[in-house]
Amino acid sequence: MTILDKIIERKKVEVAEAKKQVSLEELEQYPFFSRTCYSLRDSVLHPERTGIIAEFKRASPSKGLINSTSSVAEVVIGYQDAGASAVSVLTDSDFFKGSLADLRTAREVLTIPLLRKEFIVDTYQIAEAKAHGADIILLIAACLDSNEIQAYADYAKSLGLNVLLEVHNEEELQRSIFDSIDAIGVNNRNLKDFVVDLNHSYDLANTIPNRFIKVSESGISDPKTIKELKKAGFQGFLIGENFMKTGDPTKAIKEFVKEL
Ligand SMILES: O=P(O)(O)OC[C@@H](O)[C@@H](O)c1c[nH]c2ccccc12
Q: Which residues belong to any copy of the Indole-3-glycerol phosphate synthase domain (predicted)?
């Protein structure tokens, strides 16, 4: 059993518990549920922003603890001030030490799009994302079949959310393309063995249709890489650990952006 299988198994239990605590009808009454989402496309393509989707990540299954001291509000404001196009907040608690409270905190202080970084295995989590302040949801092809991807993307769109589809290889890409998707992210990290290889992005760049925003995810630690990825056709860059592992993520992103 891979760690991804373990995460998914745990996620299903978690969702069943959450549904007992808060019904869908109750989520629909949360104040954030009726807000209008920011557009991921507009913010990624905005000439005064960098295309960076900067992630608040305390820990991960591959790296263990990354940063246990920085506060979510301070870090995400720093990311926004540095020119990030969007912010990603992990909401998984067991493997990434995140929470829905972190997501809400980020929403309260940000005026750029916010991604709920989560392993989505049920439409309930999409309603939950909206209710807790997300603008964007992530659908991970490695955890979902084609029918689920289409149904979840359609449902997210019906709530006004932006959809980022994550793929790792061509097989996942080819079975996952639907019109209700806004952006396609190539995860350079294999979620089954954690091996990171930027070539996944370079290999898939031209296979992703140009109507989608193209995002390269994971393992980016050098501003020069952004220049190369841009040449290859990418517009978005999801970066977490490189900023979070320093004691001061705000300072780290500001210095990174100076080199772009
Ligand atoms: O910390 P990194 O290597 O910069 O990676 C960020 C982000 O891409 C990574 O956290 C991620 C990409 N897809 C995921 C799916 C689930 C959890 C986490 C992720």
A: 4-256
Domain, as residue range, for 12 = 3-258
Mean pLDDT of the chain: 98
| CA-220 nearest atom, ligand 1 | 4
104 lines ligand 1 (CB under 6 A): no
Q: Does ligand 1 have an atom closer than 6 angstroms to the CB of 92? A: no
CATH of residue 171's domain is 3.20.20.70
The residues pairing with 115 across neighbouring beta strands, listed in sequence order, are: 88, 136
Give pairs for 218-224: CB < 8 Å, separation 24+.
218/187, 218/188, 218/189, 219/188, 219/189, 220/188, 223/256, 223/257, 223/259, 223/260, 224/259
Is the distance from CB of 234 to CB of 205 less than 8 angstroms?
Answer: yes
Residue with CA closest to ligand 1 atom 9:
218
Nearest to 167 by CA among 180, 181, 179, 151: 181
Q: What is the pLDDT of residues 143-160, one digit of tens each?
A: 999 999 999 999 999 999
Number of domains in the chain: 1
Q: Which residue has the tokens 């049920």?
A: 122
> Is ipTM over 0.95?
yes
**CB of 239 closer than 6 A to ligand 1?**
yes
Q: Is the CB of 238 under 6 A from ligand 1?
A: yes
Residue 228 pLDDT grade (very low, low, confident, very high; cuts 50, 70, 90): very high
Q: Are 73 and 114 in contact (CB under 8 A)?
A: no
